[in-house]
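Sat 14:20. Reprocessing the chain from the morning session after the first attempt stalled halfway. Input below, unchanged.
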Amino acid sequence: MPELPEVETVRRSLTPHCQGRRIVAITVREPRLRWPVPTDLATLATGQTVRSSERRGKYLLLHLDYGALILHLGMSGSLRLCASDTPPGRHDHIDIVLESGQCLRLHDPRRFGALLWSDQPHNHPLLAHLGVEPLTDAFDGTHIHTRTRGRTAAIKHWLMDAHQVVGIGNIYANEALFLAGIRPQHAASRLSRPRCARLADAVKTILHAAIDAGGSTLRDFVDSSGHPGWFQQQHAVYGRANENCRNCGSLIRVDRASGRATYWCPHCQK
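Finished this time. Tokens:
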């Protein structure tokens, strides 16, 4: 599933092409996505201008004159920019046609993505209870230390809880914890203030580096132009089970629980 860096990559690549452009048509070929596409979506959005774009966690928001479109890429979805007369493929479910003659095309083979509408997007049930954005000043060592007191969950699980902090999925939780030198299984409530501060800095460093690299492409992810990301080439631990740690040479370990893999170095992470 695309995480924060991938969604931010899509947002940045789309914004120059859609901001200030009027929507002239919306074509829905398949409304049965993760949540049904609103039947009145075209009526609500057609004729409105895209005023700005925003990322909230793993959601992409296109703010219009009134209200906003809320998009989620699901497990394997992509939002691509193409000419409006480009013939759609089998899994091209929705076109948002702009006055420029281009369109934003939602491609989603598994149909786990979403395109929704809200006149108050930040109060939408999917967004209203999301946690802090990790790339803001509000996310720091003090925030982590305060919010993890009394938490029995492992720190990796806490990082991936969208009610605590948004956008950090499995890849970047593994990478940030390695950079911070913290074992993923460590109880969140036992982290000291200095270690919380180090973790906050590591999260920001990893996310910024991933955005600069266009995200990670492990299987399906591409940006709005169809280009893959390259951050997977910089992964220190994720996907590197039984390979040598680049810092100390120890073998990277992998633990599996609830369908997720946790990668870590037993020497560098304590």
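The chain has a mean pLDDT of 92.
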